[in-house]
Specification:
- With 234 residues, the chain is α/β, with parallel strands linked by helices.
- It folds into 2 domains: 125 residues, Rossmann fold (3-Layer(aba) Sandwich); 96 residues, Orthogonal Bundle (Arc Repressor Mutant, subunit A).
- It has a 5-stranded parallel β-sheet, with helices on both faces.
- Helix 2 packs parallel to helix 3 and helix 6 crosses helix 7.
- The longest helix is centred in the middle third of the chain and has 19 residues.
- It is globular and about 55 Å long.
C-alpha cells in the first residue's frame, strides 16, 4: 500500500487532496496542523512514503514540519504546498529538505502526477538493491555505496536525501562531464515533471552545503555557466 501523510489546515483543500489521492490508490492519513502531524510521525517515522505539507499553517508551519520530518527520515518524499508564488517560499521549503513543491491552486491531475512521480522515486530508492558487480563508486574522499544508497566523505557518513543521492550518483557515473539542467531534471525527477527547472539549482546548492568544505567556492560540484553542472574528479 502507498501511504501518504497530508498536513493542511484548510478543510476544503484537505478534503480535495484526500479524495483525489484515495482515488489514485493511496492510503491517506490527514491532519489539520503541524502539531498533529508531528505527533503521528514521531510515533512511527518510517510508516509513510510521502508527506504533503502546507506551508502556511498556524502553530508549527510547514517549513518546520519538513525540517523535523527530514531529521528523522531521509527516505520519505516531501512535497510543499504554498499559496504564494514568491521564489523564497519555494526555495525555503527545498532548503529545509523538501523534494518538490506545488503552488496553489492546483488541479487533481497535477497533484496526483506529482505525488506519483515522487512515490516512484522513493519506491525505487528503498527497494533492495540487486547484486551488482560494483558495490561502490569512489571519487576523491567520497564513497557512494550502491547497496545501502549512502555516501561518505573521508569515512564519515553524509546526511543526504534520496533525491540528493540520485543527483550525486548521476554525477559519479559521469565524472568531468558537463550535465545540463534539463538532463539532471529528466534523470532524477522524470521527463514528465510538471515543476520549475530551478528545483535543480536549489538541490545543487543544498548538496554543496553538505559536500564542499567551502560551498561558496566549490571544488567538486562545479557550475558550467549557461548550461548546468559537472563533477570534478581529480
Amino acid at each position: 500500500m502507498k501511504r501518504i501523510l497530508i498536513v493542511e489546515d484548510e478543510d476544503v483543500i484537505r478534503d480535495f487532496e484526500v479524495i483525489n489521492l484515495k482515488r489514485a490508490g493511496y492510503e491517506v492519513v490527514d491532519v489539520p496542523n503541524g502539531e498533529a502531524a508531528m505527533d503521528i510521525f514521531d510515533r512511527n517515522p518510517f510508516y509513510f512514503d510521502v508527506a504533503v505539507l502546507d506551508v502556511m499553517m498556524p502553530g508549527i508551519d510547514g517549513f518546520e514540519v519538513c525540517r523535523r520530518i527530514r531529521e528523522k527520515n531521509n527516505a520519505i518524499g516531501i512535497i510543499m504546498l504554498t499559496a504564494k508564488s514568491q521564489e523564497m517560499d519555494k526555495v525555503g521549503g527545498l532548503m529545509m529538505g523538501a523534494d518538490d513543491y506545488i503552488t496553489k491552486p492546483f488541479s487533481p491531475s497535477e497533484l496526483v502526477a506529482r505525488v506519483d512521480a515522487l512515490h516512484r522515486r522513493v519506491a525505487m530508492a528503498t527497494e533492495k538493491a540487486q547484486p551488482q558487480p560494483v558495490n561502490e563508486l569512489v571519487s576523491g574522499p567520497f564513497v557512494l555505496n550502491l547497496k545501502s544508497r549512502t555516501v561518505s566523505k573521508n569515512g564519515k557518513p553524509l546526511d543526504l536525501t534520496q533525491v540528493e543521492y540520485q543527483i550525486l550518483e548521476y554525477f559519479f557515473n559521469n565524472p568531468n562531464t558537463a550535465l545540463g539542467r534539463q538532463d539532471i531534471l529528466n534523470r532524477v525527477w522524470g521527463e514528465g515533471y510538471y515543476g520549475d527547472i530551478k528545483i535543480v539549482d536549489v538541490n545543487i546548492r543544498r548538496l554543496r552545503m553538505k559536500l564542499e568544505d567551502e560551498p561558496s567556492n566549490p571544488k567538486y560540484l562545479l557550475t558550467v555557466w549557461g548550461f548546468g553542472y559537472k563533477w570534478s574528479q581529480e
